[in-house]
Specification:
By secondary structure, the protein is an alpha+beta fold. The chain has one domain. The chain is built from five helices and 13 strands. The strands form five sheets. The protein has a four-stranded antiparallel sheet with strand order 10-11-12-13, with helices on both faces. A hairpin with a 2-residue loop joins strand 2 and strand 3. Helix 2 runs antiparallel to helix 5. The radius of gyration is 24 Å and the shape is elongated.
């Protein structure tokens, strides 16, 4: 039997053209879906993380008779931290603002376990790394004190916690769930990151604060301070709003219908 030494190598031109046509057709189907896939992944992760954070925070409270301490302050001096997501209307669309923590509010927060906060690096020149070194050269936290604090405005409180659109609203103080939080390593392995689906600075966790927030109610709608601050849930920070877990689920459902 003769051995064939002229065995064909590679593809013919016609076969190559057929393969290319198939690849182009697949690309035409898949490429338009990519933005939607990114958005669906973002919203699904967002909603899941908030649910898991809520569970971990409440479990920590039950085991330790107090909520996680050593949370991040979301203020720089008297102003909301400059590296939080923002748009032309302000931080998170104006939904996160600088408010006042009264002496009674402070007592309520202390009673719930919050006594120490960490100050975030105020640098905003693009050289800081807010993911791996968010505290600059700081090596210790500071005592939580009465004075300025990051709070939700009435629009956010209405949407997230069914507060009235006008008139008096309960007061909600917000802290960042950063890597120094007491719960990290004692109820949750690490502080989760909220990766935004924004291709710009807001989507870069090294340049924009991308941790989740923990919200505590300190006063009721009548302006009466609670004896112990109530944890009401985790939130994610977006350039135009503050969102809770229900918002993430609703957005995911909208993208899939």
């Amino acid at each position: 039997m003769l051995n064939r030494t002229d065995r064909r190598q590679g593809l013919t031109l016609l076969e190559l053209v057929v393969v290319l046509v198939i690849l182009v057709a697949l690309a035409g189907i898949l490429v338009p879906l990519l933005p939607s896939m990114v958005s669906r992944a973002h919203t699904a992760t967002h909603a899941t993380n908030i649910v898991e954070i809520d569970k971990a925070v409440e479990a920590f409270n039950m085991l330790n008779h107090g909520y996680s301490d050593n949370l991040d302050s979301l203020l720089t001096g008297a102003n909301v931290y400059a590296n939080l997501p923002s748009n032309g209307s302000g931080t998170c669309g104006g939904e996160l603002t600088a408010g006042t923590i009264t002496a009674d509010d402070l007592a309520a927060l202390n009673s719930s376990g919050l006594t120490t906060i960490w100050t975030l690096d105020p640098t905003s020149d693009g050289t800081q790394d807010l993911l791996n070194a968010p505290y600059g050269t700081s090596t210790s936290g500071t005592a939580l004190a009465a004075g300025n604090g990051a709070v939700l405005n009435q629009t956010a409180a209405q949407r997230l916690y069914n507060e009235p659109a006008t008139g008096s609203s309960a007061k909600y103080v917000v802290f960042g769930f950063g890597s120094k939080a007491s719960i990290v390593g004692h109820g949750i392995p690490e502080s989760p990151v909220h990766f935004a689906d924004d291709p710009g600075t807001a989507g870069n966790p090294t340049l924009t604060y991308a941790r989740f927030g923990l919200v505590f109610r300190v006063e009721n709608t009548a302006g009466k301070t609670l004896e112990t601050a109530q944890f009401v849930g985790a939130v994610a920070f977006h350039p135009d709003h503050v969102s809770g877990g229900d918002a993430g689920i609703a957005e995911y459902n909208a993208l899939n219908h």
